[in-house]
């Protein structure tokens, strides 16, 4: 990174009617297909979906409601949740397809976005199946609908203008830190879920002895080159030395039970064998420490 060029980072919300290519575009930007997580896991996860990083910046895509949800939910979402969904975003990306008029659905999105005081980028997707003339016409129709910071025609399927779009998004982000390791794409979510699975087992097996005073941190998670085994090292964090003793159990028996239960669940999620090593650490009052909480994937609201 050069001194005069500051690193930019932030959160991007993607909005658009069903089928305009939102998922395809996101896959195209991050350069790989995103595994679909189980519905059970999703209900407990925060909204962060995927991360793209290059030398200039880091884009964290937020999973806005309506993005992966059922088609007819979009309207409800637009009415009820648009402001809260976008409150975390630094930039909004509105995806449309080329067309010669603004449909009712698009109109509704435009009205809601009119109240969003953030940069809005209009992305015209699927230009591979349209003539330049049709694309220009679309730009013409849409350019005054909102005060867009940029309008970018792309083809998510053919990866046309991918780099240009990435540059435009990063240009619109504020200066900021790298929130995630540069090689993080989606496994952050898998890591979070694995941590959650271990926590779930611990809570189940420990019964009421240590109610909620534990957190789980995944230290390393690596798939072996043959793709058949994932090595995971994780730490269970508790508040007191006495808790540590209970979690480990007599001769390590309790920790072994927690580990076995979690391993079985993780194998289902990751679809590989899992070699799990569990550690236990005491960190006094971790629940009061906001930074530590954020580290464990808990938002301020919890
Ligand atoms: N020709 C063409 N087809 C595309 C492009 N991008 C996406 N598609 C197709 O459009 C269809 C919908 O794409 P998705 O990425 O699932 O769209 P979505 O907006 O995420 O859809 P919902 O999840 O229903 O909201 C798929 O059949 C894609 O292959 C593109 O750039 N060109």
UniProtKB/TrEMBL annotation:
Topological category with respect to the lipid bilayer: Peripheral membrane protein
Region (G5): 154-156
Matches recorded under Gene3D superfamilies: 3.30.300.20, P-loop containing nucleotide triphosphate hydrolases
Compartment(s): Cytoplasm; Cell membrane
Entry-linked InterPro entries: G_ERA_dom, GTP-bd, GTPase_Era-like, KH_dom-like_a/b, KH_dom_type_2, KH_sf_prok-type, P-loop_NTPase, Small_GTP-bd
Coiled coil (residue ranges): none
Keyword presence, Cell wall biogenesis/degradation: no
Any one GO molecular function term: small ribosomal subunit rRNA binding
Main location: cytoplasm
GO biological process per UniProt: ribosomal small subunit assembly
Entry binding sites for GTP: 16-23, 63-67, 125-128
Record Pfam families: KH_2, MMR_HSR1
Region (G3): 63-66
Ranges for region G2: 42-46
Function: An essential GTPase that binds both GDP and GTP, with rapid nucleotide exchange. Plays a role in 16S rRNA processing and 30S ribosomal subunit biogenesis and possibly also in cell cycle regulation and energy metabolism.
NCBIfam families linked to this entry: era, PRK00089.1, small_GTP
Protein name: GTPase Era
Organism in which the protein naturally occurs: Eubacterium ruminantium
Gene for this chain: era
